[in-house]
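Key idea: predict the complex, not the pieces.
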Amino acid sequence: MMNPSKIFENFKNAILTKYGPNPAKMLIYTGVLGWFLSSAAQVVAIIVNDKIPKEQKMFLIPQEIGDGAINVISFFCVTSVIKNFASRLVSSGKLASLKTRQFLTDSGINIKTKNGWKVPKNFDFSKFNIKNMMNFDQIKDDYNSFKNGVDVVAMTIGSILSCNIITPVLRNKYAAKRQQRNLAEMSRISNEKIKYPKGISMDTYIKMTSVKYPSSSGLKI
Amino acid sequence: MASISSIRNFSLSRTYDKISRKVSRVVLNNIGSREKLPTISNPKNLRIIDWIGKKLSSAENRLILGASALLSQPFIDASNKNVDNETRHYSICRTIAKIIAGTLTGYSIRKLCIKSVDAFTKYAHEIKPDARFKKLRTFLTPTLKCTADELQQYKNTMGTIAALGVMIFSNFLIDAPLTKGLTNWFTKLGGVRNDESK
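Result:
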């Protein structure tokens, strides 16, 4: 059996090697976990808030569940894709710092022109990775610091897009649908429970109650 | 059964890899000009990018997300025509309350945890003679060799992991009650009344 202190040491070293050189990756994983925990707490907050009427809770609870689920999905789909794309832009040499660009020019990958830099006609960016170059160590520090910065910027833009624009739009649509369904269900159940007096039909009685208490039978939305 | 599902998973991941490689090839080769490659040459911009990569931890990230959320989410809720006015009011109030409570607690807890991790991730030569809890100061220090930047990212990650642990409790003990209180306060300010009080 492994020693607990050895396990902890391995854990620390694993965190260092996995996230030390790649801070944006850590932000994505911890961000997803953070959203999940936060949504769980918010659902509880709505349930125990007795000042929010039942009809509004029927919108707010699915809104919160939708918020959490869509946040996690869009974080992985949108934020992760944007971050990976930005990362690939840098590693393929399409986007570079001046020092890296000069290094790529010296290595014959880029060609200096009057307007800046270009690549040869048939150059395939998708097959090229600066890290695989023989003399990569020459620009390792400059490349890593530039790539980390671009990754974090892309990750932040992706988070804003997914958490603050895509998620609220989608969760509102989802929650409104849930609220409509729940209210319809509530109305159906309350109608079934009504005991009508002798002499009039159920339909007549429902019509009478809906005139007397309009909000009890009509949907709010 | 196991072999069938593993074959299915294998072919699915192969298809996904194939598609992502194809998309990557098309996008990378066709976005932007091949004749004028984008190059960041301004020293000030390079310094900013470098600073963001090194200094922006999950705490600052949460703050940025919170600030941008305040500028977008209430307006998205306000333009939600799928619900009645009253529900829309509650939704806006709760969204603002949730953003404020979540950002305040999220930022503070992450920042505090990162600071705490920093205090216990020291190398022997960094510990001052008059420091308290001397033995614990190296408790979180990794044994592998690393650069100063990598160590900083390690501290940020460990701090964020610790913050997630703290947030399991704080979300229920601080976030949720604070959101509830702020929601009720904003609702009162906005003049939304319950059905019973009408």
